[in-house]
Amino acid sequence: MTVAVSGASAPAPPRPAPEAQLPADRPAGAPPDPRQDCAEAGPARRPGRPRERRADRAIVGATLEIFADEGYHALTIEAVAARAGVGKTTIYRRWPGKKELVIDALATLNDELMAGKAGLPDSAADRVRAVLRHLTTRDSDSLLGRITPRMLVYSESQPDLYAEYFDRVIMPRRRWLHGMLREGIERGELRADLDVEVAALALVGPALMPIRGLVVDDDGESLADRLFDVLWPAFRGNAGTAGAVSG
Q1: Rounded CA gap, 191 and 237, in Å?
Q2: Which of 63, 72, 119, 196 is the most buried (most CB within 10 A)?
Q3: How many angstroms separate the CA atoms of 229 and 189, rounded?
Q4: 99: buried, middle or exposed (CB in 10 Å: 19+, 13-18, 0-12)?
Q5: Torsion over CA of 117, 103, 51 and 82, rounded to 10 degrees?
Q6: Which residues make beta-bridge pairs with 206?
C-alpha cells in the first residue's frame, strides 16, 4: 500500500479519453454520413457510383436522342448536358469531346442485341428465322431505326465518323452473326461448305430494303417467312432438314 507523503503533490488523475470528434457539418445525434465514413475508411469503394451510372445513362440517352433527331452537326455538348440534366463538366470528365461521346453512345445500341443472345432458339433454322424477323420487324421510329439511315448518309459525308461506327457497332454484330452461322455448321444443321460471309449478307440485306426505298408489300413477319423459304434451302445441312418446318 502506498502512502502519500505529506507535502508531496498527488499524482494527476488519468486523463479521460478524448471524445470522438464529429465533423463540423454533422450535429450531435445525427446519423453517420456514409460519404464521410467511406473517406475515413480508405479507398475501398468510390462514393457516388450509383449516381455516376445514372449520369452516364442520362448522358448516353440524351446523346442518342439528339443524334437521331437532329444529326451529328446539330449535336452539342451544351444540348446534351441540358437534356441529360447534368453540367458540361460532368460530360467532359468522361469524354474529351463530341465525337468520342457520340461513338461511345452509338456503341450502346448493341447492348440489347448482346443481351438477347441467351434467348436464341436452339435450332439453326429457328435462329435464322428469328434473325430475319428481328431485321424485318424493326421499328423505324426506334433509336436504331432513326439512326441507321443517318449513318448510311454519313458513310459518304462523314467517313471518319462512319469508320468508328462500323468498328464499334457493325463489326460486333457481324462477328455475332458469323459465330451463330459457324455454330450451325459445326452442329451439322448448316451445310459444311456454307460461305458464312455471303450468308450473313443475305440475312442482313432485307433490313436495308426500306431504308433504300425498296419496299415489299408485306408485313415484317410475312416477309421474314418468305425470305426464310428462299434462303433456308441454300443454308441447311443434313441435320437441318427437320428444323426447316419449325416456326
Answers
A1: 4
A2: 63
A3: 16
A4: middle
A5: -130
A6: none
Residue 190 grid coordinates: 448448316
Which residues are CB-contacts of 139 (< 8 A; sequence separation ≥ 6)?
A: 145
Domain residue limits, the chain:
49-99, 120-245
Number of H helices, E strands in the chain: 12, 0
Distance of CA 159 to the CA centre of its chain: 23
Asked if 136 and 142 touch (Cβ cutoff 8 Å), the reply is no
- pLDDT tens, residue order, the chain (247 aa): 444 433 444 444 444 444 434 344 444 444 444 444 444 444 433 444 667 889 999 999 999 999 999 999 999 999 999 999 999 999 999 999 999 999 999 999 988 777 767 778 889 999 999 998 888 887 778 888 899 889 989 999 999 999 999 999 999 999 999 999 999 999 999 999 999 999 999 999 876 665 555 555 556 678 889 899 999 999 998 765 544 544 4
SS3 206: helix
CATH number of 49-99: 1.10.10.60
Query: Do 221 and 137 meet the contact criterion of CB atoms below 8 Å apart?
Result: yes
Angle at 40 between CA 34 and CA 46, to 5 degrees: 60
Of 167, 168, 160, nearest to 72 (Cα)? 160
> What length is written for the chain?
247
Cell numbers at residue 36, please? 464521410
C-alpha 21/C-alpha 244 separation (Å) is: 75
DSSP-based three-state secondary structure for 98: helix
Would you say 58 and 71 are in contact if contact means Cβ atoms under 8 Å apart? Answer: no
